[in-house]
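Project outcomes to date are best conveyed with an example. Our students and postdoctoral researchers have been running inverse folding experiments weekly, and each run begins with a structure described purely in tokens. The record below, which covers 548 residues, was selected by the lab manager from last quarter's runs and is presented without edits.
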């Protein structure tokens, strides 16, 4: 595209959606839909994507934020899944090294919990082999003393050893928005706050959809040869609209994460530990916080507002207190939380934790293609499979290239590896120091915006001449409004920056400024400002007050 992915250009995107006959319409702007849009547009298909809320509003902003092979799926003998997502980790890291960052995971071994050390050593060896992990990154088994040195907070009593293995951490909603931005650059037309309310048919075949525009309040139609339903937990609702919800169906399970300050739970490194009920939980340091998760329970409540209950939070606190010293984390220590829904495929007689995480594609008589299940990590391969199917079903005669998303960097000009990212953080940090900023801010900006940090710093130097919080927020917001289709304070504070979860104090300090900027730029009425403020205070409430 030769114009920016700016809030100012949304009307132009809507006009194009109304007036173009698309090859492919994708419903859902989570990582699955975003990945499909990037794959399709980069192969030359005229591609539209609509999302009823903000991009990554659904599960794709509420995961454990790991690009991982899913060690526990070995236990379920899902070798194919482990091989695919395991090897995808290195590919996604190469595409965005500032955002998908190598992280060594510590797996403590116990006398009475989990597997013994021989079985764990073999499992991790298999995991490395399936994922094609480089020699220097392969698992290392640790003695009891080495394990306790690696993570001094572990309760010593029954630790008998440990293992260190390679994973990657990420920011799921940033990864999703970067993929949406790349899809736009490749010629796709993504539009948020645009909800499919009905399918449109020609001779019984889905050939488009009716869309409610939640920004303008209007309704419009999109015409397309093929339609893909990538609506995550809402996939079955759309299959119902298409009257094609037969056979397999979704099974939603809820996963909760809690965030505590790093001071209260100062783990030295990421730990993946066993719980008494046989499940496994992550404790992951991030900035000034540590987050802990996840739960896995059946869910049939509202999909729009999914929150943590006191029982969820206590389950996670008990797990941490049983494993780490001093073991006194309390409800009051939880500064934030999030809850997401896994859109899994139902299997009769299986419990939430036993259900497969594999993705599945459903094809309906009407031609609607739906995709559900899967992992954040596997988005690229899922997208490739869906677009291959679309090409096979709808574009037989056309000469469509095969997928090339493994070479499309998600940041430009791109970093060769994490060492280059660290070097860039160093140079940003030196520049920031001249206007009062520090290494911490440099690291945050680069991990969030990649090379776009150069433009943000330029804005800071020229327009604000200062690196205090208000100036940084203004420069970030400026960038995000003009390049990331950020349409509301919640989009910015929750999904573009992660402040709601990982820096709630900064969020509270920034909320007035963010509100003011939006209301001026978007010319908001008093009622609209009131509404947007309520959205933010409800979000804070949901993240930090737990229901019985
Ligand atoms: P979503 O992200 O939910 O996207 C679907 C989108 O469709 C939503 O944004 C929704 O608003 C939109 N939509 C719905 N209806 C309509 C409509 N009518 N019109 C327009 N838009 C519509 N995977 C990993 O690889 N690593 C992890 O660490 C990890 N941890 C996880 C932890 C938890 C607790 C959970 C729940 C999942 C985790 N996963 C993880 C799995 C991963 O997060 C999901 O597989 C992935 O995010 C699903 O993405 P999606 O795009 O299919 O769904």
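After processing, the design step wrote out the following sequence:
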């Amino acid at each position: 595209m030769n114009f920016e992915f700016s809030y100012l250009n949304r009307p132009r995107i809507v006009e194009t959606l109304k007036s173009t006959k698309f090859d492919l319409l994708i419903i859902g702007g989570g990582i699955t839909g975003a990945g499909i849009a990037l794959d399709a547009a980069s192969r030359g298909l005229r591609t539209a994507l609509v999302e009823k809320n903000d991009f990554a509003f659904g599960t794709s902003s509420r995961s454990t934020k790991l690009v991982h092979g899913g060690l526990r799926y070995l236990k379920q003998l899902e070798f194919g899944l482990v091989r695919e997502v395991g090897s995808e980790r290195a590919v996604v890291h190469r595409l965005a090294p500032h955002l998908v960052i190598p992280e060594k995971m510590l797996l403590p071994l116990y006398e009475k919990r989990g597997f013994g050390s021989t079985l764990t050593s073999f499992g991790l060896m298999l995991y490395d082999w399936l994922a094609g992990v480089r020699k220097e990154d392969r698992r290392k088994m640790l003695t009891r003393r080495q394990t306790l040195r690696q993570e001094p907070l572990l309760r010593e009593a029954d630790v008998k050893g440990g293992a260190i293995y390679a994973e990657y951490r990420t920011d799921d909603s940033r990864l999703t928005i970067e993929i949406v931005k790349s899809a736009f650059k490749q010629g796709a037309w993504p539009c948020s706050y645009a909800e499919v309310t009905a399918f449109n048919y020609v001779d019984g075949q889905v050939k488009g959809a009716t869309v409610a525009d939640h920004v303008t309040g209007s309704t419009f139609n999109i015409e397309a040869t093929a339609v893909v339903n990538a609506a995550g937990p809402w996939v079955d609702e759309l299959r119902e609209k298409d009257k094609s919800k037969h056979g397999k169906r979704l099974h939603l399970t809820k996963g909760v994460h809690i965030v505590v300050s790093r001071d209260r739970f100062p783990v030295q490194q990421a730990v993946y530990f066993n719980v008494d009920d046989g499940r496994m939980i992550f404790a992951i340091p991030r900035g000034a916080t540590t987050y802990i998760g996840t739960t896995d329970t059946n869910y049939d409540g509202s999909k729009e507002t999914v929150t943590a209950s006191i029982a969820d939070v206590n389950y996670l606190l008990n797990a941490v207190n049983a494993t780490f010293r001093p073991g006194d984390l309390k409800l009051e220590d939880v500064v934030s939380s999030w809850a997401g829904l896994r859109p899994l495929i139902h299997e009769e007689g299986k419990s939430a934790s036993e259900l497969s995480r594999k993705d599945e594609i459903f094809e309906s008589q009407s031609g609607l293609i739906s995709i559900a299940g899967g992992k954040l990590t596997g988005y690229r391969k899922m997208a490739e499979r869906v677009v291959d199917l679309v090409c096979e079903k709808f574009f037989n005669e056309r000469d469509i290239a095969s997928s090339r998303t493994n070479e499309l960097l998600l940041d430009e000009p791109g970093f060769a590896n994490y060492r280059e990212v660290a070097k860039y953080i160093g140079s940003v940090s030196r520049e920031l120091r001249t206007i009062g900023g520090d290494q911490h801010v440099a690291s945050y900006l680069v991990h969030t915006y990649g090379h776009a940090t150069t433009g943000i710093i330029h804005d800071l130097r020229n327009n604000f001449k200062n690196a205090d919080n208000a100036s940084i927020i203004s420069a970030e917001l400026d960038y995000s409004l003009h390049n990331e289709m950020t349409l509301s304070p919640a989009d910015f504070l929750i999904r573009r920056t992660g402040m709601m979860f990982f820096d709630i104090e900064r969020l509270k300090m920034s909320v007035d400024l963010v509100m003011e900027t939006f209301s001026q730029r978007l010319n908001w009425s008093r009622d609209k400002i009131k509404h947007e403020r309520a959205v933010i205070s409800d979000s804070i409430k949901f993240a930090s007050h737990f229901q019985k």
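Residues 169 and 460 are 28 Å apart (CA to CA). Residues 526-544 form the longest helix (19 residues). The training component of this project remains on track.
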